[in-house]
Amino acid sequence: xxxxxxxxxxFYAIAFDGDxxxxxxxxxxxxxxxxxxxxxxxxxxARRTADGELTVxxxxxxxxxxxxxxxxxxxxxxxEDIELLTEQIPPxxxxxxxxxxxxxxxxxxxxxxxxxxxxxxxxxxxxPIVNGFLAEHDTEEG
Length: 142
Prior knowledge:
Mean pLDDT: 85
Strand content: 15-25%
Organism: Microbacterium immunditiarum
Strand order of the largest sheet: 1-4-2-3
Order of helices and strands: EHEEHEHH
InterPro entries: DUF6325
Shape: globular
Number of strands: 4
Pfam families: DUF6325
Helix content: 25-40%
Protein name: DUF1269 domain-containing protein
Number of helices: 4
Low-confidence stretches: none
Structural class: alpha+beta
């Protein structure tokens, strides 16, 4: 069986008020890493100034990472990725750009590869949208 060094990677942009995420955001990331669900490969903070300028800070450039685990692939999120993921950040807001390896999908990807297949498309639906849709349709049927 094929053994991949890394599983599939997902890029996430998490918006928040202020210059840095609160401790709850960092704890949520840390919990996912500690549980073995994901591997944090890269983490970047981006801020849109009041005049619309985007400033970017790599976690690896900071003196204090605030307890966030070491990054396996620091620098993986390039400027093109960051600009695309932060297009919708309004002036005065910030975002954390996470690149996570989906550890649960690593063996699945290898098995698909060995069977001559691979995932060629993936589309995610954010949890608030899923739950809102289901709640709306549950009340319509009930």
